[in-house]
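Fold this sequence, please.
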Amino acid sequence: MSDTVAGHEQTPNTNFGFAIDVDGVLSKKTPLPHAMETLQLLHSQGIPYCILTNSGGVKDEDRAMALSKQFNVPMSPEMVVQSHTPFLEVAGQYKGKCILALGGIANKVREVARSYGFDHVVTSSDILTSVPNVWPFAEATEAYHRANMQPLPMGPDGSPMPISAIFIFAAPRDWGLDLQLIHDLLLSQGGRLGTRSAFNGNTTLPNNGFQQDGQPNIFFCNPDLEWATRYCEPRFAQGTFKSALEGIWASDKPLGTRIINIYQCGKPTTESYTCAERRLTLLQMKDGRGEPLQRVYMIGDNPASDIQGANNYKSPRGIAWYSLLVATGVWEKGTTPEFTPTHSLDNVQDAVNFVLEREKYIIRE
């Protein structure tokens, strides 16, 4: 009889595991063929795996619950690494401070930020409703923002708290408003909306004076330019939003001015792979079960995120990472991927079967 730990039936003989992408690998809104039975196989065999996705916008526990229901296999929050999960590591830096959280649907992004430990969370809906003139083109979205707003948190002086950091938790829905707000805050004095720093454009200062006056840091969590959906062609993702911001910023600034104090996590960055490896290691070794993890197989559909990230990742624990590219999402079979995987296969079931054969793993009945 086997024991169950964090959603896995553990077996003591597995020293390898999987990090598996979702969109384009396991599903395109609905499960892809063979995805459900593949995850159920890993669960029944006690082979450690985690979901490593650039999706976001909901709490880790909610994502785990949704995936459990979608694929009919138990998953715990410890098995899910979303694009913004590494934000957990920096939440303590903003204790007692106010952040602007962007992206996602309705108030879910606020819920995610608070679940990570951020005390004072403002959304673009809060700002637009409290300061209606901040964005003059709200006709199509004003009702949505009013339905999801909360009052702005106030400081001791009775004015709105300054914004200390901007966190993009998922692809923004109202690009125009969100781009305007970020641009305003990067030009502000100390993160206070409606102000302008006197340092802006001062060529005697670093970065021509821009972002030299306590403006907020920016945290992005998904560098993907596009992602696979049920549409016949990939769609814009958060990385495209970041490119749009950088283009707007460069359009009227002195040559050489750039956006600074900008941070990035999500695949292919080291932060996301470190987080995934840490969680896989805990799943493998919890309560002393299993051998130390020695190999991780990343299964993904996007060469520029999944494959590049696994190829470049240097494990601090000496764990070897391998990249498996499948042809059910962004990458089209027969084309040359921008980043070369360890192996390319048709789908997630083929990828897992390839690894089990490579590892000489004998499936338990």
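The longest helix spans residues 270-285. DSSP finds ten helices and 17 strands in the chain.
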